[in-house]
Amino acid sequence: MKMKFLVILFVAAFSAFSYAEQQPPFTEATDAKQWHRFVDNYVASLERQLEQKKVPGAALSIVHPDFPSIALGFGKTKIRKGRQVDVNTRFRLASVSKTFTGSLAAKLAAQGVLNLDAPVQKYLPAFNDTVYRDNLKVAHLLSHSSGLVPNAYDNLIESRMDYPDIVSKLLKVEPLCTPGQCYGYQNVMFAMVGDVIRNASGLEYETWMQEFIFKPLRMRHASIGYEGMVRDENFAYPHVRGRKRWHTARLKKNYYKVSPAAGVNASAADMVQWLKAQLGMYPSVLPPEALQAQVRPYTVTKKERYRRVWRKHVNEAHYGLGWRIYDYDDETIFYHSGWVQGYRTDIVVIPRLNVGFSLLLNAETGLINELTTQFLDQLLAMSQPA
């Protein structure tokens, strides 16, 4: 697999807000040569590993405000007769979509459009006649602390049942604990944030994303839903493993039913812009108070400390508003992963170092865990004082 495309995206010389304001992004020993050597070495290693595993295609994004941003495309959109992946090739983000919804909700809360601490029935009257009345807050939807059994009715997302019918069934499910008391990862319940946003603002979730996130951030190839994914031929097809090789799978519509949870599509170039926004470089889109609110550690997520590969590094794990917050080898990072049939995705923000990272694969491979943690390990090693 040859690396075919590289785009250098220059960033602004300053930022109105950054998580790293209280500390320098790197030690004084870290200069441009070190940074570029680090990036070059990482990219070379990543490309070797993708080739070894014969991963069909990948998209990499790396951002630091002091250096040119990187967007890279690797491999093919399809294992047979596919086109080259370039920086504008769309991938399904799967649950990395939750970071977009969490940031949007935090933005709207900062603008006074909705109240994260309000009971959900304020925006969704259907909750008035349920056991969740008064106890379930908007923030609980976003932080997976509704009290429901994990992944409630994900099986119905996979079925032909429409989203409104799935929600009707979900409202009848008794919670395992009082909202706010336990963690249970959700897709249907999380997706209801889109309904909250619509009723609180009068605009559809998709409109907010397109007009107030994608457009001002110049995420020109980002979209929501199946139609947005296949609008032209420059998208990465899903791949699954069988008989010791990768096979192109059919692009399924199922999880697009729950767009706020799993419906965003984006390219390497788009993810550069999203990472910049997360680093505080677009305060008119994501203001400082929104960036701070989204990473408040609402929910303890102990099981995250035992994930394959990650368990060597994660000391503490919490969930905020669509974002995971990890203590990774004593470094605070904001993270999310995504996984739907044929795709794996990761996004990481390292606030103290002012660095953002995104990796998108059009194959269901656990290699993504190694590739992401290798980036973190090498970055943290470089940032240590000489």
The number of helical segments is 12
Instruction: Briefly note the CATH topology name of the largest domain.
Output: Beta-lactamase
What's the β-strand tally?
14
CATH A-level architecture of the largest domain: 3-Layer(aba) Sandwich
Largest sheet: 9 strands, antiparallel
Tell me the series of helices and strands, N- to C-terminal.
Answer: EHEEEHHHHHHEHEEHEHHEEEEEEH
Overall geometric form: globular
- Strand adjacency order, main sheet: 1-3-2-14-13-12-11-10-9
Strand-pairing-aware structural class: alpha+beta
Rg of Cα set: 20 Å
Approximately how much beta-strand content do the residues carry?
Answer: 15-25%
Kindly state the percentage of residues in helix.
25-40%
Can you give the mean pLDDT? 92
The span between the termini is 36 Å
Which CATH C-level class of the largest domain is it? Alpha Beta
Uncertain segments are: 1-23
* Integer tally of domains: 2
User: CATH superfamily of the largest domain, called what?
Assistant: DD-peptidase/beta-lactamase superfamily
